[in-house]
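Box 3.1 A note on notation
Throughout this textbook, protein chains are presented in two layers. The first layer is the amino acid sequence; the second is a token string describing backbone geometry. Keep the layers aligned when reading.
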Amino acid sequence: MKNILLATIVLSSFVNAQVEEGLFEVEYELNGQDLKSFAFTTENCQPATIYKSWENWVSNKEGSSSFLKKHEASNIQFKNSQDVYKSIISVVEEENGKTTIINTLTDQNGMTFNQNSLEFDKIYASLHDLSIQTKQACVRNELKLANEGLIRLTKDNADAQMKKGASIKSYLKDSNSLLKLESQKQELTAKLELVTNQLERTADDKTVDKLMKKKLKIENSLNSIESKVSNLNTKIQSAEENDKILDTKISQLSLQIQEQRKNNDSLKKKYNSIVE
């Protein structure tokens, strides 16, 4: 896709007035020839999006245009023009996600389009249209990806919130069960204390035997409750730790969603700021 070597970029006095619209003059080498033409830049744009925008631009021109290669088309004719052009789109990837796009136009006489061309104003305006269309397509793609990212974050946040809700529900249920067990434990402890006191005051063998059986039953019930209490305490502690993890995750996701929304708003403003 990097089918040219960009040697120098020159902002002439004429083109300098057009920079804000996105076009600037470049000197470059293509197929062994030193050429001058016009270019524009995009940010964070996939080459496929750039080529698709150029293909649409070619297809919307008059004449029997045809694509010779992925980056080359012929028989392009501009409105009210008798000349036909060949177009070669060149993509130069630079640092910081920037890409320079050069559309080299050559007429049927082998002359490359430049400031001295007879139909300069008409073709320059068309190149400007291509720069606008491409930049809009690039930002639309960025916004599409950003929206998809926001959807994923929102879904993850909703899932985390649901897990937190289920965790709280389980926590409250276990806490209520623990309270009931603690109440039962207090009642059984009181009964055990009563039976123990009775054993200390009686000497009758039959009564002692009966009270011992009763005491053993109460102790077994207490042991069972202690085991349940221990399990519930472990479960509740685990739920509390899990809630902390979920709280952290929800907090992080909320911040990410906030940042993503800002990014989406920024992209929308960026799209709307592209001059038609």
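The first strand starts at residue 5 and ends at 9. Residues 114 and 120 are 7 Å apart (CA to CA).
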